[in-house]
Amino acid sequence: MSETTAPKPFDWSSPKATATRKRRYAADRRLRLYGLISILTAIGLLGVLIASLVATGHTAFVQTKIAVEFTADPENVPPDDPASGNFRAVVSNAVQQLFPEIDDPRELRTASGILSNGAANIVRDYVTAHPEVIGQSFTLNVPASDPYDQLNKGVIDRSLPEERRRVSNEEIALFETLEDRGLVSTPFNWGLFFNADSRFPELAGLAGAIVGSFYLLLVTFLISFPVGIAAAIYLEEFAPKNRWTDLVEVNINNLAAVPSIVFGLLGLAVFIQVFGLPRSAPLVGGLVLSLMTLPTMIIVTRASLKSIPPSIREAALGIGASKHEVILHHVLPLAIPGILTGTIIGLAQALGETAPLLLIGMNAFLTSPPGGIMEPATALPTQIFIWADSPERGFVSRTSAAILVLLGFLIFMNALAIYLRQRFERRW
Amino acid sequence: MTGYLFLAILVLSLIAFYTGRRTASQFVAAHRNDVHSRPIYHGAFAAVWVGLPALVLVLLWLLFQGSIIDRLLLASLPASLTEGASASRLSLYLSEIKNVASGRIFSEPSPEVSAAAERYQRWQMIAQWAMVVVALAVAALALYITRARMTARFRARQGFERTLDIVMILSAVAAVLVTIGIIISLTYEAIQFFRLVPPHEFFFGLNWEPQIAIREDQVAGTGAFGAVPVFTGTLLIATIALLVAVPIGLFSAIYLVEFANDRFRGIVKPILEILAGVPTVVYGFFAVLTVAPAIRQAGGLLGISISPNSALAAGGVMGIMIIPFISSLSDDALRAVPQSMRDGSFAMGATRAETITRVLLPAALPGIVGGILLAASRAIGETMIVVMAAGLTATLTANPLEGVTTVTVQIVTLLIGDTAFDNPKTLSAFALGLVLFVVTLCLNVLALRIVRRYREKYE
Amino acid sequence: MNMLTDAAVETALEGAPESKAAKMRGEKVNVFYGGKQALFDVSLDVGENQVTALIGPSGCGKSTFLRCLNRMNDTIDIARVTGKITLDDEDIYNPRIDVVELRARVGMVFQKPNPFPKSIYENVAYGPRIHGLASAKGDLDGIVETSLQKAGLFNEVKDRLHEPGTGLSGGQQQRLCIARAIAVSPEVILMDEPCSALDPIATARVEELIDELRENYTIVIVTHSMQQAARVSQRTAMFHLGNLVEEGPTDKMFTNPEDKRTQDYITGRFG
């Protein structure tokens, strides 16, 4: 082991060395393969997620409708007060007319099951809006009830044995006569966007949830945007470096990682219990979501402020501007694109948030959209939760469709953020 | 009504701005060099002081009006009704009174309730008008005072900037207040709970059956609040999630940082980030719709019976959600290892795999561990996936094929629907919430500290 | 400093360093980074058991050439090398050549000491471990000790072999990196400005070490210090703007350069 020994030459071409090298290269390829498999797995899972949503959800974007001729008999519909009329009778008369060959009352009941339960309401709304049709006949496209809707869309397989289907042979036969007469159509389901929630899947829509989510985001934006920017400017530009501001900083970073349901508990205990604000109201939901978004807002705004080079500040200070003027006139305008991008991403997160809203009661069953921020409302994600919990088969595709709508909004918001970033981003 | 009030305050504040600026312009014309601040600052100063106090007043008023009127209403009810009534009974009275007042009558109200409803409407009206009058008076007074103080030498800019400072500091304090609010509200309700159920039963009891009767007519269990099975269920699902997410996320990061070219990275990274942007309620539905049936079917083929809400389905889907966290934090950690480490290893004749496993991973370990801790905190606090896909009954088991429940599931099921704050069922949710908050907070503080220290090391 | 000057004088007295056989040989080497050419037709021989210094102003391509000698440029995606470089008359850019073996035979020491965040022992044992050079644990201990001794570090660290290598001083870290390179018994050691991050005393220690290593290894050193090139090398190659300006025995290069650019550079007119 003396210092003078020459390095013993290693025989790189010996069989042992060759084998070692082979093994090492194999390990290298293996690691590479694991990485590739992992990435493909992750992307594949995302693909399965989207594919299963599209596969179940696409049928909810069309709705089976049946053209039915109704007669607004003055006997059933008093012309002086059409809204109080007996529209159930109008509908059952129409069903009898639709199937003149049926005289068995039981069979007739089965036949009326083809039309949605809400048919009477639809006729009432039409007649109230057009009182001139009283005493006349008119044709309306009425949604088919859920089992027939599923049957028509092929979700229920007609070739299955009868006992394994939710629709009997007799019901299929009735429906097929309507198909043969060309009364069945499947137009685009505008009801999905313009109807509020309903217990009947064929009538349920997202109008209430979309309006509710809009109010939620409005409140969230109005609170978290100004407060977040003000706090960020203070912490980034004015705050002295001491223990207290350190504490504030640690606090904000941790707040960003607090589970969302804890914010729901806070909202329930403070806003509803202590301040007595109404349950299920977008105001409370918005307050909770803005508390959740606040840390994100502050972090994003500080990052944009930090990216403005000090030379701009120095230049403005150098010509005698006050520190406030420097920030209001120079730094903030330059940072605005970054702040807006961050805000949109924060709001997109808030739009998808569900758990805290459940705790403050935003999963109520509501058949009309909220009229303001103090009225009970649902939101898109809580509506998804409600529908996912509903037993009717038709709600499965509605849930997937609602998710696709929610994802659509999220994609739009994120695309907007990316566009803003690319359009206005400046490199210093 | 309130909307018009906000509008009125805004208009007053605009008036203050324009008149303030005009007056100040006259100073400039008269005194020239003797004016301290530019006219615009005089205007801004006046506008801020006219608008802000009135606005804050209205907001506080709105916040407290409801609960004060409720108190007064309850106090005004005849003693025969309120004597000895529970808090939930009282809140039922209140909602009945409000329903009657707004005209939603389901059955003929009792005379006491009708009278109270009338009082409620009257008080509501009085409170609203009082708010309008007080707010406008405050705004007008502020307008008068600021006008009176306006002179050529008045330091309006300093005044305005100081006001801005106060607003900014209050905003920064708001973030701290949120944390304090969380701690106080959770602790307060948890203490109420521990008065009813001793802490040792909660922390060490093995039986969790919180669905007790709130009203006499309900059929329910006797109530047992041993939270151990809830905690173990949470750990089981979080562990499954990490077992799915850590290998996939870590290997993906390794591939993206060390093997992939820029183009591949540029395409794959945003796709992985989509996984992080999907709302959790979507994952929950995915678990119920696709994953749980698939797992059951697979189990059926193998002849194993698997619970429809197995921990495996919930944990697996949660794992998918966490993949992007692990991969992006590991990505950051691997990239933070200086290039000189790679060069040093390659120059020794190491292969990429050897460089990664023997040099880069050990060097990046603190960052990766920090990322895994953050992901664990996410998994423990995640709610929607487990609410939809995991079970409701607390089973003490380590078998991933059985259904278990978690802390967050219990919080949601205990608090969903109408709640009163005087029974252990509701309060236990806050005790669980406190445990959840403390555990995730510890994990986050630890993780952020590790990550930060690690970053400093290489900067 | 005296001692070093003596070493340089000694080198000069030995004379005729070009008589040594060429261990590595570059022929018309061109290097491109993307569309930018960094080296133009460089042909240079590296003599066995000699120190060859590559000098020139920054950005002249000397480091690029050095990195070609053990194919470290392969780790840069956009880098492309043409021409021929041989090690013992074998083309190292031949696809049949195993880059792992090549880098074990041609070791490298970097500008900034880059010990791995492991213990001193593990740093030195890294190469023998990955290449499977030690069959028994005792062998590995022996290799680590010999390498540290050759790097002149053993006596300073023998009591703390299992403490982190990053805890050493800058000069010790650089010698640790040299020990790490030696541990796989390379034939050639490439050094990329190995002293530029060190203080003068540590620099002197490393230069001394380089002179000792010359006995067993072929060394190529990139340096921006004329004095260092004069002190440690037997042959010197001068690069400028990606071209090899001239090449020859060190004493001749520093006393009587052929090219005007070399003269200007050595006398400090540019660079």
From TrEMBL, chain A:
Domain ABC transmembrane type-1 per the UniProt entry, residue ranges: 210-417
Keyword ATP-binding annotated: no
Membrane topology term: Multi-pass membrane protein
Positions of transmembrane segments: 31-55, 214-235, 255-277, 283-305, 326-348, 401-420
Record InterPro entries: DUF3333, MetI-like, MetI-like_sf, Phosphate_PstA
NCBIfam families (UniProt xref): 3a0107s02c (TIGR00974)
SUPFAM superfamilies recorded: MetI-like (SSF161098)
Gene3D superfamilies, A to Z: MetI-like (1.10.3720.10)
Family: Belongs to the binding-protein-dependent transport system permease family. CysTW subfamily.
Keyword vocabulary terms for this entry: Cell membrane, Membrane, Transmembrane, Transmembrane helix, Transport
Subcellular location: Cell inner membrane; Cell membrane
Any Pfam family: BPD_transp_1
Annotated organism of origin: Chelativorans salis
Protein name as annotated: Phosphate transport system permease protein PstA
UniProtKB/TrEMBL annotation, chain B:
Matching Gene3D superfamilies: MetI-like (1.10.3720.10)
Main localisation: membrane
Presence of the UniProt keyword Transport in the record: yes
Topological relation to the membrane, as annotated: Multi-pass membrane protein
Keyword set, alphabetical order: Cell inner membrane, Cell membrane, Membrane, Phosphate transport, Transmembrane, Transmembrane helix, Transport
Domain ABC transmembrane type-1: from-to ranges: 231-447
Record's subcellular location: Cell inner membrane; Cell membrane
Listed transmembrane segments: 40-64, 126-145, 166-188, 235-259, 271-292, 312-334, 355-376, 429-451
Pfam families: BPD_transp_1 (PF00528), DUF3708 (PF12501)
Role according to the record: Part of the binding-protein-dependent transport system for phosphate; probably responsible for the translocation of the substrate across the membrane.
Entries under PANTHER family matching the protein: PHOSPHATE TRANSPORT SYSTEM PERMEASE, PHOSPHATE TRANSPORT SYSTEM PERMEASE PROTEIN
Family affiliation: Belongs to the binding-protein-dependent transport system permease family. CysTW subfamily.
Name of the featured protein: Phosphate transport system permease protein
Automatic annotation (TrEMBL), chain C:
Gene3D superfamilies, alphabetized: P-loop containing nucleotide triphosphate hydrolases
PROSITE patterns reported for this sequence: ABC_TRANSPORTER_1, ABC_TRANSPORTER_2
Keywords annotated in UniProt: ATP-binding, Nucleotide-binding, Phosphate transport, Transport
Pfam families on file: ABC_tran
Transmembrane segments: none
GO MF term set: ATP binding
UniProt keyword Coiled coil present: no
UniProt feature coiled coil, ranges: none
Positions of the ABC transporter domain: 24-266
Keyword rRNA processing: no
Domain of life: Bacteria
Similarity comment text for this entry: Belongs to the ABC transporter superfamily.
PANTHER family xrefs: ABC TRANSPORTER I FAMILY MEMBER 17 (PTHR43423)
Name of the protein: Phosphate ABC transporter ATP-binding protein PstB
Species annotation: Chelativorans salis
Taxon lineage: Bacteria, Pseudomonadati, Pseudomonadota, Alphaproteobacteria, Hyphomicrobiales
